[in-house]
Amino acid sequence: MPLGTELAHKLRDRLTYRGRKFAFEVAQLRLPNGAEGEWECIRHPGGALAVPVTNDGQLVLVRQYRFAMQGRLLEFPAGTVELGEDPAATIRREIEEETGYAAATWHCLGDFPIAPGYSDELIYAFLATDLTKLDKPPLQDDDEDIEVVLMTPEVFEETVRSGVMVDAKTVTSYFLAKPFLAGSN
């Protein structure tokens, strides 16, 4: 059997809570090596993220309030994938709603787990270019507090190094997109 294909055996579920965007599960498992224990997991439908780049090479980010962090984080626009929705459709909608831009060209950067120690959430990352500023202002959801921020890749990297709160999916996606950005090394 190839490495990593053995699965844990679920012995029993102890608790499941279903919220608006995700579920929380506590289960007793037997691992492939025979060890038994109890594990917690956030079950999440996944998220789609765009690295939007304007025609003059600026990154389009959002500064968004995040309850769990009790503050604003710098992020690329992203959204939860709805049941049965293609992640590409999710991010096309979200980039317009959160930033007020639409992209004519899309490039898939891949997908990756965001916090595999406690969640099954995957982020589907895309590079969005050939941006057009929409005539209407961004349309935020009722539970969002978002400010659009433009910055060069150099300023973004300095911001990350400076200790400003930037979420991991944004940093990861930036480095996935960096080879496609004009003037990158």
Automatic annotation (TrEMBL):
Domain Nudix hydrolase: 42-179
Cofactor: Mg(2+)
Keywords from the named record: Hydrolase
Short name of any one Pfam family annotated for the protein: NUDIX
PANTHER family: NUDIX HYDROLASE DOMAIN-CONTAINING PROTEIN, UDP/ADP-SUGAR PYROPHOSPHATASE
GO MF entries: hydrolase activity
EC number: 3.6.-.-
Protein name listed in UniProt: NUDIX hydrolase
CDD domains: NUDIX_ADPRase_Nudt5_UGPPase_Nudt14 (cd03424)
InterPro entries: NUDIX_hydrolase-like_dom_sf, NUDIX_hydrolase_CS, NUDIX_hydrolase_dom
